Amino acid sequence: MAGVSVGTGAMNSLLGKLTALLSDEYNLLKRVRKEIQFLERELSGMRVLLERLADMEERLDIMAKGWRDRVRDLSYDIEDCIDRFMDRLGSGDAKPKFMKRTARRLKTLWVRHDIATQIKELKARVMEESERRDRYTLDESYYSATKPVQIDPRIIAIHEEVKGLVAMEGPMKHVTALLMDESKDLKVVSIVGSGGLGKTTLAMEVYRKIGSGGDFQCQACVSVSRTLDLVKLLKDILSQIDKDVYEKCQSWEKEQLIREIKQILTGKRYFIVIDDVWKEQDWKLVKAAFPENNNGSRIIATTRITGVANQCCSNSVSQPYQMEPLDDVDSRRLFFKRIFRMDDPCPVELEEISTKILQKCGGLPLAIITFASLLANKTHKKEEWERLQESIGTGPSFDSDGNLKGMKDILLLSYWDLPHHLKTCLLYLCIYPEDSMIKIKLLKWKWIAEGFIATQWGSLDQVAENCFNELVNRNMIQPVYGNHDSSVKYCRVHDMVLDLVISLSDEENFATVLNGRVCNSFPNKIRRLSMQSSGKENKGAVGAITETKIHVRSLTVFGLHYNNQIPCLVGFHALRVLDLAGCDWLENKHVKHIGSSRQLRYLRIDSFHITELPGEIGKLQHLETLDLTGCSSLPRLPSTVMQLRKLVRLFVSDDTQLAAAGFRSLQALEVLRFWETDDPVRFAEEVNELGKHNLRCLHIDGNMAKRVFCNNPCCTYTCLQVLKIQPAVGMVPRGMASLKNVVKLDMAVMEFDKEGLQVLMGMPSLAHLQLWVTRNIKEKLTIGSDVFKLLKFFHFKYLSYFRSFLEEERTSCLVWLTFAPGAVPALRRFRLELNPMMVASDFFAGLGVEHLSVLAHLEVAINCYSAAPGRVEALESSVGEAIKLHPNRKIHVSRVLENYMLKSDKEWEESVSKKRKELEELKSHCGSSHEERRPEEEEE
């Protein structure tokens, strides 16, 4: 169970700390111990009710919401109090001298009496809420609450004929083709996509088209509720396939209903649509009613969740049909078709505002239709449209006419279906500005720092990864895939989802967002703060923040342009996350008091003006992530950084020097990125020592890589999984052969030969390899069949340039790489980035791509920088011929830096001749100088 969540506040984290406080480690006053025992018992009971209320938040009344909000707020306040108490008792030197010991005893005595006073006040608040719970009879009211029966908005789409569909013809043909093949086996086609994309509409149109042909003897179409009522669902199916039997089934249980449906469908060809399946288990229960009778029966299942869609497919080979948003052209067609008559064009004065509205709708048909329906009943005046467009994003305004309620209800349905910890992770996205490209690893580290991630399901990183993937699978987050390796490093939140998240966050007082909208008042207690705007509407924000900063747990700043808009960091005692990456004007004075935020777990600073960090940073004993990548003017870190025993991730800029002395003391360190050090030899020893502990990811430059892996060929990095070496190292360090657990390697080398290839082939766990060679390869390299058995992605960048061409043109090998039969058996994606002047135009014929048995994607990027057009075209032609030999593989050819390509082949020849002459003159000059010095040297 996560320590902090939107439903229960800090209650879970707090109860754990109360238990720790009652241990013998803390010498509490007797009366304080009794008070804390009382708090632990009373709050444990409140937690149970909070969790129950969180499960039914969409139907809580005002009294229940008020009680929940007060208790949740109380949990934060008590935890903040306990944190300060534990820190103050735990501070001090490891071996204090007499005067310090005496002062510390007096201090802790005062602290114990001080905590007694605070605990007494907090106990009174707990007792008040306990009594209020009894008066409201909340335990009885919400123990077995019955959800009011309402019309499911999806029923309208199921039973209402949709006319004039836009961009549905292609999807209909695709799904119809998947369904209507010649197979006699039962076939299930799943349609997956976020709410509002038109899954139900597509399924129903296919259902009507196919079902009307008379090819099926039984047909039914039903919707699955968020909480599956299997008996009701089965009765709905029965009512459509046999009305006579349905009239007798009112008292039947699910087992009898399943038997009856199976009996009716056995021997018949049936067609069923199961709309909006939420869970894999639900699908298994529903599917049990459908016999596999080999009569060509068909089922369509729609869902918002990728995992469910895969489960629904007929077999492991089948793929779900992924619904895509409408493109710009179809969005405009659908939008204007609803507002104007078919032949009426959009007035010119409404074109710009229409574009803004459609950007907000993001290609979602339901959003487009709903907004268009709102505008259809308004005057077609630009001012009116602008007013409505600007109101989007303020939840209540969005609902004021009721016309957009359908979209919000569908999004809310997805939100309410999330587990508590996923709701919390999703709401946290409200801190990011609209249309942000969110770096996933930073987001996950913030989730961890906030206490949203629980450890009982695995490591924190793995659980955070699972949470992110689950939100993607539920279509609440949009992943942004990499261009070359299909990796997901960034994500986005659709504007309409972000609007909902901000609205929910405001209701829950989860986070306060200053994003340029007018804010007339602030919450009494700000728990999380996101500052996104430098506008005048933020006037007074700093003052309001200063009054409540003792409660702030997270402060994230995006793009503030004035240094008077960030509050002084003194007094932010509860702060867990401080992200100042959006303050490029930040100066030393702004971070002077950073050490006062003792609860800090995540610290990110990005400013050219930072030249020094305070020594007090060593007091941040809970700090896990320290990201100073953007502080390029910071010459060194304070020595007190070595006191950060819980530091897990450390990133510094290329120009920041790390001190070697004592670095091995950071034994919790898992991720390290640096280039410079004051003592390279000693630092290599320190890093090698860390490699024996928890180091999982290492990014260093070529010089340090040489010291780490060449001077210590037997080094063991038992946990290292990711290694990045850039700028380039001279050659592949031979000591890297001992890296048996590295999964991802990204490195640049100057020289690459057979021995270097042997080192890489000796790394058995490699799954992802990016290799950049900067000089000519002088020998043919063959990748055999018994190596790289787990490699799935290979990016080979061979970009030797002018000077190396001139120096080595006689000895360079233009056919430089080949795959032997059976090589790299797991390789799925292979990207080549080439200089066409360095490879033979027919190199592809000898590459051995045909031996890569499971290769799905091959990308050839031709680097045109200073290249002759004829050589570029010849290389493209060579790859084109190869494509014909591999019709079942995706092969893509592209040009890189085409603007820098030479205008003609003659220009290349002239450039080569000129450069060769300059090189010969340089050699001649060096030789002459050597001859002139020789007599002098002999005389000496």
TrEMBL record:
Q: Which residues form the NB-ARC domain?
A: 170-343
Disease resistance N-terminal domain location is 10-101
Q: Which GO terms describe its molecular function?
A: ADP binding
UniProt keyword list: Coiled coil, Leucine-rich repeat, Nucleotide-binding, Plant defense, Repeat
The chain positions of domain Disease resistance protein winged helix read: 431-501
Q: Which GO terms describe its biological process?
A: defense response to bacterium; innate immune response-activating signaling pathway; plant-type hypersensitive response
Q: Where is the Disease resistance R13L4/SHOC-2-like LRR domain?
A: 551-703
Renumbered to this chain, region (Disordered) spans: 919-940
Which parts form a coiled-coil structure per UniProt? 22-56
PANTHER family (UniProt xref): DISEASE RESISTANCE PROTEIN RP (PTHR23155), OS08G0412100 PROTEIN (PTHR23155:SF1167)
The text of the family note is: Belongs to the disease resistance NB-LRR family.
- Name the record gives this protein: Predicted protein
* Source species taxonomy: Eukaryota, Viridiplantae, Streptophyta, Embryophyta, Tracheophyta
